[in-house]
Amino acid sequence: MIASKNTYLALAGLTLFFILSCSKTSTVYSKYYYFEKQEWSSKDTAKFRVDIIDTTSICDVNIKIRHGELYSFSNLYVFLTTIYPDKSQKTDTIECILANSKGEWYGSGLGDLYDITLPIKKNVRFSKSGVYQFYFVQAMRQDPLLNISEFGFEIIRVSKNK
Question: Which of 23, 61, 71, 145 has the smallest C-beta neighbourhood within 10 Å, fewest atoms?
């Protein structure tokens, strides 16, 4: 009985190892910008600088928001300015929906903090290698914006082209 139990555990562990190692997703970049006193001033820019080398992979681009339970709004507007390796730039306005119409937070909570990951671009291929800069500024009418503790940015490789 013990041998079959050990065999079962070994097979389960091996299966888990293969599932995790065969995953096609991997993190290219992930970082958080922290706000003192959980206040995001409109003068405070969350800056992320990413050196892209791989121009063949397909990636998802996400933002990550950590906010307090007492955050006053169900959404968050941000201005995103992207500066490309050739120094050209583009500015977009992004609305981040954080709660449903009943005021229930979409993110997962621990204590009085909630974390949410929101996709802003899916299946992106970076056409040029080099340094990309991503600047986020809060675009809400309240300034400073209270109960925002961190704002994150991540690029996840979802598949590798051959």
Answer: 23
